[in-house]
Amino acid sequence: MARTKILVGNWKMNNTIAESKVFCESASLIAQASKEKGIEVGVAPSYLSIQYVKEHVEGIDVYSQDAHYKEKGAYTSSVAIPMLEEVGVVGAIIGHSERRAYEGETNEVCNLKIKALLAHNMKAIYCVGETEAQFDQGITKEVIKEQVTKGLEGVDHDGLDNIVIAYEPVWAIGTGKNASKEIAQDICHYIREVLTSLYCPKCASKVRIMYGGSVKPNNIHEYLLEEDVDGALVGGASLTAASFAELVKNI
Ligand code: PGA
Q1: Residue 49 predicted with pLDDT over 70
Q2: Are 244 and 225 contacting, i.e. CB atoms less than 8 angstroms apart?
Q3: CA-to-CA distance for 244 and 217, rounded, in angstroms?
Q4: What CA–CA distance (Å, rounded) separates 38 from 99?
Q5: Which of 10, 131, 216, 240 to mutate for ligand 1's pocket (most ligand atoms within 8 Å of CB)?
């Protein structure tokens, strides 16, 4: 099953509007390179930059870094999916380990957010990954299985079309200690096995699974050559258009 490769930049709490503007001025480099390679690319700016980026890039999907699961209401500081839809956002990153660690986001909350996005026919990039302590204890697969199973509870076969899973070992994020390509392949393959048991082999073979954690222009190609790694979710190396374009060129 041929799966279109996907590369998404997660800007986190970086890039002001002024900096986003600089990025957009050279974003055609990224769009051009991704078109040549037949790769899907996306970027997840801060809420403040989202609209500017959406209006000033072409050929690059715009994602949100989170979304609330309620349509609207008294949820101070949150952003609702219809608001994101209004500015042309295609989907959201859900369950990033920084949200799990600092905002107490649970698998159950991720599940509500994923289902809310699917109800709007939007994509969910669902992040899963073990902490360093869990890795050291050798319980990575148990952790991943629980995150995938609980996060996707109640998502039907059709909904799966809008799901992308990102395997991001917490110990590899922003540390420069990227997981080996063998670890990335092993866990991405395992995620596909979990999806097979939850759905069916054909359904699982369609889902794109990304690796994330210290992906840089000089190591991205190693991951993307692995059979079950269909893309990358990139933080630090996605902040400038030049670096992002290097990532695409090196796939
Ligand atoms: P990093 O972040 O590339 O800076 O390690 C990845 C992520 O958190 O998605």
Answers
A1: yes
A2: no
A3: 8
A4: 31
A5: 10
